[in-house]
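Hey, resending since the last one bounced:
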Amino acid sequence: QMRQLLKTDTDKVLWSWKISNGTKSKWKSRSSDEKQKIRLQISEGRKKFQQKMSDPEYKIAHIRKILCSGKIMDTKPERQLKAILDVSKLIYEHPFQVDDKVYDFFIPSLNLLIEVDGNYWHGYGLTKQQMNPMQFKHRTNDTFKTKLAKRRGFNLLRIWENSVTPTFVMERISQYV
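The structure tokens again:
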């Protein structure tokens, strides 16, 4: 079955959200031989990608390629923070990569990484039990990124999207001056 290719319950839930009814009905109409062929192609593709991503140099180059492709659009809170930083005349890099993780902003003069966490996507005000699988996955990644930043000697400032105001942002940044 297709769902056997998905490794975690989170993957299964996210997969079910992404598939349209038209795609589901098209899948059901395929013969078992066609389905098996597609499953094998997906499995082989996943294996090749995982093999390539196990090479640290390839992984970093792949992430940079995605960042430079222009396909990733800034979120509204990121655009707001960018405007605040521009007005304040702070020099920053956006986005900024540390190892294989990408942070929203980096202010070199303060050695400060800034992450803007979306209220919905990162489960603002929710306990782990209240989060959906996607929110839990983001929160877990946030925890890892926080630890990585500290291990690499960076300061890290996390800001919830509902807190992206000039006054709040500059007060928080001033704590690192």
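The beta strands are 96-98, 101-103, 105-107, 112-117, 155-160.

Sorry for the duplicate.
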